[in-house]
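SEQUENCE-TO-STRUCTURE ENTRY
===========================
What this section holds: a protein sequence and its matching fold, both as plain text.
Question of interest: how does this chain fold, as expressed in backbone structure tokens?
***
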Amino acid sequence: MIKKSTLEKIISEDLAEIWSILSPEEKRIVADNFVAHTFRKNQIVYAEHDTPRYLWCLIKGKVKLFKDGIGGRQQILRLYRPIQYFGYRAYFAEEPYVSSAAAFEASTIGTIPMDVVKSLINNNNKLAWFFIHELSRNLGGSDTRIVNLTQKHIRGRLAEALTVLIDNYGFEEDGETLKIYMAREDIANLSNMTTSNAIRTLSSFVQEHIITVDGRRIKIIDEHALRNISKFG
């Protein structure tokens, strides 16, 4: 159980974007309805076809949004990092979730009931514009990703996946090792390719001295070359 003082600190810091546009009374409402949850690695946060009830905010850890496809093959749609909000689009669309979310590693995630969020939006235009902006930005990113996943060659798709990991999670203290450890299958699912193709392409990047691989640890040796491959596909 998280202490009230700690919870208030989490809310004010980790909901900073929303917190800054709320009135004192609205802040009290958020604080009264905010709950922090812990999830184990690979634990489902919500599943496809579930009814959306919460605004989720990733406080600590990593979360993936994914969809199961034909033959049980999984496609990773998006990766979340602290501090990002998710799980609210389906509520606004008045439909069940069309994808699932799971913790990529042990994570802490905060929730606010969407009926509370809706009530706040009805009385705060700035909050409404915040969600319009977030949804619009996510839609633009999804459109770009669809084109890239369908038109880029395998090398370009894998290079893009690695640059997404760089941009989302950054590096360890050495400035080269990705700050996320992914199985080959997960990398394949992020790149829209088979695991065998992902393994072969990673090996080719190693031979070209663009990356080094040690188990699930990937070190980026030549980020410029990697981004060029991603850009030109």
Q: What stands out?
A: Residues 125-151 form the longest helix (27 residues). The longest strand covers residues 54-60. The chain has ten helices and ten strands.
